Amino acid sequence: MRASPLLPLLGVALAACADPAPLALGEVQSAIRNGTRAPQVVTLPVGQQKAIGWLHDPADPGTSFCTGTLVAPRVVVTAAHCLQGRSVERVGFGIGTLPTQPEGVFGVVSVQTHPTQDVAVLLLDEDARAQVADVLPVAINRTRLDAVLLGRIVEVAGYGDTGDFALTGRFFAAVRFADLDETFVTVDGEGRQGLCFGDSGGPVLMPDAAGTPLLLGVEHGGDSSCVGRDLLTRLDPLQAWLAEVVGEAAKLSPAVADCSGLSYLGRCSGAVAEWCDDSGRVARMDCGAYGRACGFVDDATGYYCLEAGDACGGVTAQGLCLDGTAQRCVGGVLQADRCGEAGLACVLGEGGAACASPEALPDRPGAAFPTGGAPVGADAQAGSHLEGGCAAAPGGAPVGGLLLLIGLVARRRRRPR
After folding, report:
1. What tens digit of pLDDT does each residue of 75-98 get?
2. Are 339 and 174 in contact (CB under 8 A)?
3. pLDDT at 35 (0 to 100)
4. Could you give the CA distance from residue 369 to residue 375 in angstroms, rounded to a whole number?
5. What is the DSSP string of 232-273?
6. Cα-based angle 95, 351, 167 (whole degrees, multiple of 5)
7. Greater confidence, 302 or 96?
8. Are 370 and 388 in contact (CB under 8 A)?
9. Rounded to whole angstroms, how far apart are CA atoms 42 and 212?
């Protein structure tokens, strides 16, 4: 996957992007090639796809120079080298598939860069939901990665150079988790897809056992082919720093308080249930993240996550392969990707049915991503894990029981006033 070139920053970025892997200095890059508009291996609700946005100069928000990921309503994580040579007044964050057609454009009021690693945290000038009501932050992985993940297929994304002037904006690519050291995750496009110029700061994503997408790292640099190996700075070793920086910024991001006529009965925004809670604030539940559809339950509950049923004609969130088409039920909506038209095959991986090259399959197909369960709600982050039993949530609670508890608690809060 590729996005717009990083020419304004290339001179200052090269020194910062020099990596310890056997990549020449001149080979460092940052964008995506041969990508797709929709994620291929990680089930991302539309709201979380919108969390992946572009960095721009406020004087020209229709162009991008890097990529970033919203991890809290006012907090974006990106690469530190993207900010070199730029004052905070010359950095903005945009949400939308195309920078030329933004759904939301935000100023940046502060930038915190890690003292030794290529990671930066941006604080936006307002809650992103004020302009993009359905945007959902992506949870940061907070548990140490393990070499058992090597060989898995993961998702990367960005607004970088696609190699085709007609293809601009945000694209996703499926790449192999090829290597791991104390600083970087190495991914390999194996000559098919990959990051390219302009994708710096973009995410590498992988689902946990419950299907919850987690942000493992941010794009640092890679080889100039744009379909080879890339280094992404790991976030799990930086948890103390991230907890302090992101936590302080998150305190400035209360729930949006203006219900704007929204009642306790609420509404559905795609797969997201929204309602006005007892404190007069907009509350949300991402039903699609749990393989459910949003719909009207009853007069006491209003719009909420429906019980598991046949909303997609028997196709589940995990999905299936049918006549060369990858089919998945996302938020109660049947999604079908015609793999054959792209010269790919439909495969069943840990992220569900997806289009991929057969030789790019994990060495251990079907192996679950070892983790301890999903965070509670779209904004929860501290409960995310990457190791532990697949049947247990943090603290030993079964995942099924945890989801049931979420439903009971949320419904109890939604009684008519």
Report:
1. 999 999 999 999 999 999 999 999
2. no
3. 67
4. 15
5. EEESGGGHHHHHHHHHHHHTT-PPP---TT--TT-EEETTEE
6. 40
7. 96
8. yes
9. 9
Q: Does pLDDT of 358 surpass 70?
A: no
- Number of residues written out for the chain: 417
Q: What's the pTM value of the predicted model, to 2 decimals? A: 0.57
Assign 3-class secondary structure to 353-379.
Answer: EEEECHHHCCCCCCCCCCCCCCCCCCC
- pLDDT over 90 for what percent of the chain? 35
Query: Exposed, middle or buried by CB within 10 Å (0-12, 13-18, 19+), for 109?
Result: middle
* DSSP element (H, E) containing 11: helix 7-17
Q: Is the pLDDT of residue 349 over 90?
A: no
Question: Which of 225-239, 256-270, 381-395 has the highest average model confidence (pLDDT)?
Answer: 225-239
Tokens of 227: 């379909």
Assess whether pLDDT exceeds 50 at residue 299: yes
Say whether 350 sits in a helix, a strand or coil.
coil
Rounded to 5 degrees, φ, ψ at 334 are: -75, 120
Closest CA to 171 of 33, 325, 42: 33
Within 10 angstroms of residue 299's Cβ, the number of other Cβ atoms is 8
Q: Which residues of 272-282 are buried (b: 16+ CB within 10 A; e: fewer)?
A: bbbbbbeeeeb
Q: Which two tokens stand for residue 271?
A: 């797969």
* Contacts for 3 with CB less than 8 Å, ≥ 6 apart: 31, 32, 54, 64, 67, 158, 159, 160, 161, 162, 168, 169, 170, 171, 196, 197, 198, 199
Q: Is 17 exposed, middle or buried (CB count within 10 Å of its CB: 0-12, 13-18, 19+)?
A: buried
